[in-house]
Amino acid sequence: MKKYLKIIICFALIFNLNNKADAFTGVGPIKFDNATIDHFFAYLRGDGQSKGEVGRKKGTPIAFAVNPEGTWSHYYYCPIKFSGNCAFNANRAVSECTKGSLERGSSRCKLFARGYKIVWGGENIRLSRKFDEQIVLAIFKENGWYEEFSNSTPPSGSGENKYIQKKKKDKNNSNIVKKSKNENIIEEIKELKKLLDEGILTEDEFENAKKKLLE
Fold first, then answer.
1. Region of residue 52 (phi > 0: left; psi between -120 and 50: alpha; otherwise: beta)
2. In what order do the strands lie in the sheet with 117-118?
3. What does the pLDDT look like over 151-186, one tens digit per residue?
4. 6-33: per-residue pLDDT in tens?
5. What values do phi and psi take at 117, rounded to 5?
6. What value, to the nearest 5°, has the Cα angle with vertex 28 and ends 26 and 33?
7. How far apart, in Å, are the Cα atoms of 24 and each of 20, 29, 145?
8. Which residues fall within 8 angstroms of residue 13, CB to CB, at 6 or more apart?
């Protein structure tokens, strides 16, 4: 009888642990905004920076938590100087993330990644220890977790967003037009000077015509 009781208790404990794990780990649709994807890059790099020297390992990712809206996250990594001896854990990441998310009127956070493994929705996608932003972006897009340029802030390492690119393009086009216009004015002034030298225009006529071109 005691033997069967022990078996029942073990099953109950396993069932409760699984339920807690399911509640703790995120499930369902999620769409990271650009600030949150930057946070995930910083987490994976292990240095708290979303940009910089790619591929240089500076620490070990521990846990990354995010709210279902994909607008707020919190993570912990262990700096390399501590040789992996850090007290941070997944529970603490979820707790701190939830605190910040609720303060902003959003939902409670769930665990998205543990170490280098994405656990959201039971995917268990293991990422390379050598950080590669493009591979991470490809995985996120494939799973529908992120859409590039989803808001006004550009993601790390992906170049400027479309608005900035357009402004630069417009500026370049403006410079080209301005340069072309200046070249035309110079040519016209040369023609006027030629007419002046040939006596067709007087000095006053030349100066007035040149002044109009330069206005």
1. left
2. 73-79, 59-66, 110-114, 117-118, 125-126
3. 444 433 333 444 445 555 565 555 555 555 666 777
4. 443 343 343 343 334 444 788 899 999 9
5. -110, 125
6. 80
7. 6, 16, 19
8. none
Alpha carbon of residue 94 to chain centroid:
21
Sole residue written with tokens 């109009």: 212
- For tokens 């037009």, the residue is 177
- Measured at the alpha carbon of residue 50, what is the angle toward residues 44 and 52, in degrees to the nearest 5? 105
For the entire predicted model, the pTM comes to: 0.58
- Do residues 97 and 114 touch, judged by C-beta distance below 8 A? no
What are the CA-CA distances from residue 47 to residues 35, 50, 94, 121 (Å)? 16, 8, 20, 26
Residues 6+ apart with CB under 8 A from 110: 24, 25, 26, 27, 65, 66, 67, 68, 94, 120
Sign of CA dihedral 154, 159, 162, 167: positive
User: Which is it for strands 73-79 and 110-114: parallel, antiparallel or unpaired?
Assistant: unpaired
SS3 content of the chain, % helix, strand, coil (to 5): 55, 15, 35
- The most distant pair of C-alpha atoms in the chain lies apart, rounded to whole Å, by 125
The single residue listed with the structure tokens 């225009």 is 201
pLDDT tens sequence across 40-92: 999 998 887 877 665 455 788 999 999 999 999 999 988 877 776 787 788 99
Residue with tokens 């330069």: 214
User: CA-to-CA distance for 55 and 129, rounded, in angstroms?
Assistant: 9
